[in-house]
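Researcher: If convenient, please comment on what follows.
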Amino acid sequence: MTSLKNNIQSNRLGDLEIIENFTDIAPLLTEKQVLVASERCLFCYDAPCINACPTAIDIPLFIRKINTGNAHGAAKEILSANILGGSCARVCPTETLCEEACVRNTHEDAPVSIGRLQRYAVEHLDPARGYPFTRAPETHKHVAVVGAGPAGLACAHRLAREGHQVTIFEAAKKPGGLNEYGIAEYKLVNDYAQQEVQFVLQIGGIDIQYEKVLGRDFSLQNLRDSYAAVFLGIGMGDCNGLNIPGEDLHGVEDAVDYISELRQADSLAKLPVGKRIVVIGAGMTAIDIAVQSKKLGADNVTIVYRRNQQAMGASKHEQELAQTHGVGFVFNAQPKQILGDENGLQSMQFNRTASDATGKLVTTDEVISVPCDVVFKAIGQKLQPSFLNQDTEHPNLCQSGRLAVNEQMQTSLSGVYAGGDCIKGKDLVVEAVDHGNRAAQAIHQFLQEDKH
């Protein structure tokens, strides 16, 4: 739980206004819109959009199936490559992946609406026609998966399809990982993350144990001794700090913690919301917390980033989304200190930054001040390797401090694989699914070679 309730009021907006603000940001296309959008696809041979999709969905094929009235078949095509294709269609930055690679994406034209067509297809999977996947004959091999987020779910489902038994150990009370706890509410409405998990589990052979924490309830060595293989989809677990004076004051919060609280709240109107909010960061989390703060009734929200706008991690589409919701931006400003007392925050000071002759970012003596009563830190997360303290043999870490893996997603330990945010990557849901798929394929091969 955040500490905002100690000094920040709630109920800035009424329930009805809040509900309206948090409706689906990109409603499902109509049949007419789908027909028009699908007809724009050129059905390219060796389509660049496929290469741009981390899970390599055959995009021209599923769009052709939609265009010929076979939305169910299109959904099966998508889900065969990406079992979380429904949520990815909603939360993926398609504008920087498949749609950016679309051959129609020129100054004179717009890309095909691949993400919205994908969502339409998955929503039209016909349950009356049965579950689209079957389990292979039972192998009597049992795999442990740590983490019921996108990477863990994708890995578990692919392993279950191969006939293996899977037990998922999840630290939280609910499955879904980032989709359940970390994505903006307006992107995944109507408890979609849980609906998708239930769809994944229909394959059978997957058991989830909740509130089971690696390093507390069991060790990695315990899993290695008890299971034929292990997949670690543990996320990052800890947030980066600003390391400046005033960071410990009430009203300074980790954005991911507040988004999690928002996602689990019974009443959004009762959430504590600041009047003047500063968000530190430049990625998707910064945009999500800024836009949601405005939707909750904040008067003024400002995203502050130490580099220029071109260096932002958030896509242009996300930046425009923030701007249309009244979020302000301050660039080239390095956090200096946060000012406040027991009555709350007053302001945050920044040093202006600039690039030297070599392009290196340097801090200047110019100081600016931004009034605020809440500061959200959205400056990334880090792996907390303390979960390995019980083990004598540890998987290697890469230079970034995350788990090191090879091309088969295997760690330095035999039979131990990893994927998702805990390894080096772009920290995208679709990329985590790809990691889970690739790890499952490697684990399946490993189990076939294991004669015991």
User: Anything to note?
Assistant: The chain has 16 helices and 15 strands. Residues 135 and 382 are 36 Å apart (CA to CA). The longest helix spans residues 429-449. The chain has three domains: 31-129, 142-237+381-449, 241-377.
